[in-house]
Each structure stands twice: as C-alpha cells, then as structure tokens.
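User: I'm new to structure prediction. If I give you an amino acid sequence, what do you actually give back? Let's try with this one:
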Amino acid sequence: MSNGLFNEELASEAEIFSGKIGTLGLVAGAFDYFGLQEVIERNLKKDGPNVKIDYYPLIKAMSMQLLNMPWQTLYGTEAFYEHLPYEALLGVEGMDSHDLNRVNLGRCLDAVYESGCQELFIECSLALATKLGLKVETAHVDTTSMHYDGKSFKEDGCEVELLPGYSRDHHPELNQVISLMLCDNDSRLPLYQ
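Assistant: Good question. You get back a string of structure tokens that encode the predicted 3D arrangement of the chain. For your 193 residues, that looks like this:
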C-alpha cells in the first residue's frame, strides 16, 4: 500500500546502507551547497587519461577524512572509505574505494600545489562568503602554533623550515608550525591562511 510518502518500487531497487558516518554527510553537503565543485574544477584540470576520478571528489574525500580522522595519513584514505557509501558522499557513480589511493591523492595534491594553494583557498573562501551573503567590512588576524615532534628539516625548493621557537603551549624546545589566518570579524570565516 502506498500513501504517497513511500515508493515501494524504488525502495525494493535501492541499496540500503546502515552505518555510522558521523559528520561526513554534512561536510559533503556543504561542499555541494557552497558550489566548491565549480571553483575546484575551474582551477584544477584532470590530467591524463589514466585519471579515472576528477580532483573535486578527491579534495572532498580528503577534507571529510581530515575532519573525521585528523590523525590518519592519506595512506589510510582508501581504507577509511572502504565500508562507507563513498559514491553517494562524493557524488561519483561507478567509483571504487581503490580510486582513493595514495597515487591519485598525490596527483591531486600536486595539482593543488601547481595551481597555487593560497589562490584556491581564497577562491573557495570567496565562494562561501558570496553564498552566505557576507559583506566583509572588518577582519582580524588569528594565529596559533602547534608543536611538531619530528626532526628539523629543510626541503629543497621549499622556503618552510621546521625549527624550535615561539610556542603557545609553552614548549619552545620543540619544532613549531605557526598558522596565521585572516578572518572576517562577523562570521569568523577564514578568508586567507
């Protein structure tokens, strides 16, 4: 018996998933609602015939994983999504959790770096501010420091060097990473990092 709210025919054909997904659905929905696909695809082009999945779902997948499992490395992304409804969350039919492997994720991160990390961040922030109707009139600088337990190193071609220094958690003997953001005063939305 159908009361208009439940379609028995569709329900019998649909694959039913039951499980805990935490905030994954909210983050996936936010990516779509704020139109980040258009921004990311405009800045990052799929490179080569061997790339099965576009960069937008890869960035979406990495962001959702980071917000749910911040201590897990990208090597764990494939396993993280293995038992989740990744096709629905990422909006890509016919993909496999294996498509979220470190090679594809590495290519995606290389593409972000080559197009300009700051530029992409700013364009995504602008898309959010525009969708929310924000009129940024004043901003503030927000900084924080995090310690890094590893050894100091300097990488060729990179101006960043991890060294001991100022520490908000009172451990100046440890290597420090300092994050600086420019945020809108009213919404606290980061506009630049």
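You can read the tokens as a compact description of the fold. Here is one thing that stands out. Helices lie at 8-13, 24-33, 36-43, 55-68, 77-81, 86-90, 102-115, 117-132.
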